[in-house]
Amino acid sequence: MDFKEKTLSTENIYNGKVVHLDKETVKLPNGKEAVREVIRHQGAVGVIAITDSNKIVMIRQWREPLKKVTLEIPAGKIEPSEHDDPEKTARRELNEETRFAADQFELVTKFYTSPGFADELMYLYHAVGLKAVKDELPQDDDEFLELVELSPKEVQEAISRGEICDAKTLMAVMFWQMMG
């Protein structure tokens, strides 16, 4: 069966700082029409940073859509100047959010965060050889972050409490566990 949908029209509904929203009318494989609401996003990175004492580096922050504080791996959106080099974003975000640098960044995987309604592609990197940064990059004015380093046991407890609850961080934890 051919699953491809043909876009008949696109109406831009909203253009924001982080996302754009389009309303698309599509022709379905059976010939009928349907409407799709699609969030456009420029992409993002997440960084798996493990200390020499085998603790994972996380950020505690408020997440307004969830109305709660979460624990997440360092992450951020790819800026237009970084579009061809998401590793550059990973290096920047690690510095901005944690004040760490790394000797090397290994691409673990890339994935779509929620393909049912968004085109956001996220790159997940493993930062190897952590060290304190020499030159701190400025943090975003609207971010209030607390650096946290968690042991494997503390991570499992945070997952049980619902503090670690986003897909990129859960994927990072699974990768860390597979590393042994």
Explain how this protein is built.
By secondary structure, the chain is an alpha+beta fold. It is 19% helix and 44% strand. The protein has three helices and ten strands; from the N terminus they run βββββββαβββαα. The chain has a four-stranded mixed beta sheet, sandwiched between helices. A three-stranded antiparallel beta sheet has the order 1-2-3, with no helix packed on it. β2 and β3 form a beta hairpin. It is elongated, with a radius of gyration of 19 Å. The mean pLDDT is 96.
Could you list the spans in which at least 5 consecutive residues all have pLDDT below 50?
Answer: none
Q: Please identify the structural class as seen in this structure.
A: alpha+beta
> What is the beta-strand fraction?
35-45%
C-alpha termini separation: 42 Å
Q: What is the element string, with H for helices and E for strands?
A: EEEEEEEHEEEHH
Mean pLDDT equals 96
Overall 3D form? elongated
Radius of gyration: 19 Å
Total number of helices: 3
Query: Helicity, in percent?
Result: 10-25%
**Largest sheet composition:** 4 strands, mixed
Give me the count of strands.
10
